[in-house]
Design brief:
about 350 residues; alpha/beta; Rossmann fold; Arc Repressor Mutant, subunit A; 3 domains; two-stranded antiparallel sheet; 10 strands; binds adenosine-5'-diphosphate; DNA-binding; ATP binding; four-way junction DNA binding; cytoplasm
């Protein structure tokens, strides 16, 4: 395996953020399911992928290109490695932002071995010229390498060995249709159910040699935002706490106390999420308020609020995006233990939005 690139989205310090440092990547690698049988949940995707891979193996052919969409930490990288393992093929890992020029992509493609799996994370962030080169590579296993500049430039065709592209994106809708259409198999990964996350946690605890009881696993699962990566990360922090403050065994009580220390609340909101909600409720009476104003109030970049905190708050039904701005839902008031202002006095319109 070959890591060409490390994602860095500046959220390393967040317990619920993306995976950024190498140490964490090493732990993640150790916890990764190695085959489809070990992969928990995502039943439909697993079943369909199993058929695709079996059929390819039976034909003695390279598997079709696969597009995986879904939020960070749901197992896209893991699945790409499983695809390679099931096809007994090597894998190369890179990402859209690492491919700035078509030449970067040409260099990678031309060095692939026959049958190799190329995992292209954040495929929607590839540059336009690279994307166009990829169309031809996916369809005809061929690229045109442009040599020279201006009128004297010539295109030299280069044959590629058959390979399997596994593209990953947070949203398939971000991909231009011509690219999307070139994938033979497209799978959307859903957030995990609490029971599935409990299985992930028990499995990881076993691999990390940590003792955990069912209630302890349930407590961590409930705060993991439907995401195995976060479940594994919270498990490791709770393990630390259990070792230092108790006898090392993770119970519900230990898990709750540990996650209180790390400021991850009982619904999985961390300090940033709560800060956004608190500002929205306490400073703006529940909204509507513009995103930029809200971001200034919490002392964060607009993008951080929009891309990091909001998707989860919206999914949890705590915040709504409306044409007039961000609005807290009744559930947000309840979660923070605050009473919403009466619509007749508040006059901010949020009660009307929810028909309360
Ligand atoms: P993504 O590429 O979607 O961001 P990863 O494949 O890197 O996510 O998964 C993050 C972590 O979560 C990995 O360490 C992996 O062990 C764990 N994980 C993801 N999906 C599963 C699953 N279905 N079963 C068990 N562990 C999983």
């Amino acid at each position: 395996m070959n890591w060409d690139d490390t994602a860095d989205d500046g959220t390393a310090e967040r317990l619920v953020g993306a995976s950024t440092d190498r140490e964490e990547q090493a732990v993640e690698a150790a916890l990764r399911p190695k085959d489809l049988g070990e992969f928990i949940g995502q039943e439909k995707v697993r079943e369909q992928l199993d058929l695709v891979l079996r059929a390819a193996r039976a034909r003695g052919a390279t598997a079709d290109h696969v597009l995986l969409s879904g939020a960070p930490g749901l197992g896209k990288t893991t699945l790409s490695m499983i695809i390679a393992a099931e096809m007994e093929a090597p894998i190369r890992i890179t990402s859209g932002p690492a491919i700035q020029h078509a030449g970067d992509l040409a260099a990678i493609l031309s060095s692939l071995q026959e049958g190799e799996v190329l995992f292209l994370d954040e495929i929607h962030r590839m540059s336009r010229p690279a994307e166009e080169m990829l169309y031809m590579a996916m369809e005809d296993f061929r690229v045109d390498v442009i040599v020279g500049k201006g009128p004297g430039a010539t295109a030299i065709p280069l044959e590629l060995p058959p390979f399997t592209l596994v593209g990953a994106t947070t949203r398939a809708g971000l991909l231009p249709p011509p690219l999307r259409d070139r994938f033979g198999f497209t799978a959307h990964m859903e957030f995990y159910e609490p029971a599935e996350l409990e299985r992930v946690i028990h499995r990881s605890a076993h691999l990390l040699d940590v003792e955990i009881d069912p209630q302890g696993a349930a407590e961590i699962a409930g705060r993991s935002r439907g995401t195995p990566r976060i479940a594994n990360r919270l498990l490791r922090r709770v393990r630390d706490y259990a070792q230092v403050k108790a006898d090392g065994v993770i119970t519900q009580e230990i898990a709750g106390a540990a996650l209180a220390v790390y400021e991850v609340d009982n619904r999985g909101l961390d300090r940033l999420d709560r800060g956004v909600l608190e500002a929205l409720l306490k400073l703006f009476g529940g909204g509507p308020v513009g995103l930029s104003t809200l971001a200034v109030a919490v002392g964060e970049e607009r993008e951080t609020v929009e891309e990091v905190a909001e998707p989860f708050l919206v999914r949890e039904g705590l915040l709504a995006r409306t044409p007039r701005g961000r609005v807290a839902t009744p559930a947000a008031w309840a979660h923070l233990g605050l009473t919403p202002p009466r619509s007749s006095t508040g006059g901010n319109g949020q009660q009307d939005l929810f028909g309360a």
